[in-house]
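Final report, section 2: Outcomes. Of the targets proposed, HTH rpiR-type domain-containing protein is the one most frequently requested by collaborating groups, and we therefore present its record in full.
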Amino acid sequence: MSNIRIQLLSILNREPADSVNFVITKYILENIKYQKKISMSDMANACNVSKASISRYSKRLGYEDYFDFQLALATYRVSKNDYFYLNAIESDDLFNNYFSKVKNQVDYLSDNLDLGEIEHLVELIKSHDNIFLMGQVSSGFAAVSLQDNLTKLGKVVRTSHDFVEQKELIETLEDDALVIVFSAGGKFFERVEPNPITMQRLKKPTIYFITIDETKDYSYVNQTIVLGQETDYSSWMLLNVYSDLLYLNYKRKFDDESVS
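The predicted structure is given below as tokens.
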């Protein structure tokens, strides 16, 4: 199943509204559910751009050519798990069931939190100067929040939300870098798809993967931190909670270096 929607949102949120890439992205997002197969000429005409622009756009998203991009469009599906979803019974008492699900997630994290993992990761944040926080769509909120909070303490870290940039960074950063990835659904690396040969290099970054549900093992990930039992519409909130806990622990340990 194609994960192209995440790629498209990454472009939409970073490009100027009058840019060619924005126009193409907006058109695809508005029509992807209804127009599974479209020729390069038809897309160029619909967006009022050249076929060369469509070709460059396909490569900007990381595809070999337009045909590869077209295949991703054709295989895109939205599953029930992709929606902000309450089943029929839960919807009868919408608000109470929503808060109940959120509370259950937070209670589980509180009962099963590994304080040692937080302590160790905070020490790594302190000792590294080259740090990237990554996430996609709602999972990216935790990265931005942690960046903002650490800056208050004089610790400067960078965030990356662009699909292509994330892949490039993971494939090129060396062993002086720390990468912290937030991914509620645990599919970050399936979407970014780092080159497996490149990830066998000796000088690669330390990578921490923070997710909600059990996920597959990746040989290049140093530590996977699982926060919950199952992934649902409230899962991304646990990433924000964990982000706050990292900040609070960093503040507790190194508050004397904080800035006003």
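The chain has two domains: 3-75, 114-254.
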